[in-house]
Amino acid sequence: MRTAERRGFAIPAYTLMPDHAHLLIEGREPDADFRRFVTTLRRAATAASWHLVRNGLWQDGYFEHTLRGAEGTKECIDYILNNPVRAGIVDRAADYSKSWSVTMNA
């Protein structure tokens, strides 16, 4: 979250899965640079977890999808939060401790 704020972004929702992550990333500044932010975020996460993950934290590349305006924001958050349910890890999204969203905490 600190990295996002410093780079002109907000993260309204995320879920950290055992083998991947889902994040809704929202640009907050006209000059917010998504690629630079993702690079910085990946470096920060690697530095924070080096003692846990010895063989590398990230695969090459990532998948991104751009939402325009409020198009599908609620649906995107629902998709992110329900990923652990679809994976069979928990029965209810609210039971997964590695998820967060502005809607869960509103």
Order of helices and strands: HEEHHE
Question: How would you characterize the largest beta sheet?
Answer: 3 strands, antiparallel
Structural class: alpha+beta
CATH class, named Alpha Beta
The order of strands across the largest sheet is 2-1-3
Note the total helix count: 3
Question: Which strand-content bin applies to the residues?
Answer: 15-25%
Total DSSP E strands: 3
Share of helical residues: 25-40%
Our Rg estimate from Cα atoms comes to: 14 Å
CATH level 3 topology: Alpha-Beta Plaits
Report the span from N to C terminus. 17 Å
Question: How many discrete domains?
Answer: 1
Shape from CA axes?
globular
The mean pLDDT is 87
CATH architecture: 2-Layer Sandwich
Low-pLDDT residue spans: none
CATH H level: which superfamily? Transposase IS200-like
Q: How does this structure look, described?
A:
A hairpin with a 4-residue loop joins β1 and β2. Helix content is 33%, strand content 17%. The protein has a 3-stranded antiparallel β-sheet. It is of the alpha+beta class and 106 residues long. It has a single domain, classed as Alpha-Beta Plaits (2-Layer Sandwich).
Can I get a quick summary?
The chain is α+β, with helices and mostly antiparallel strands.
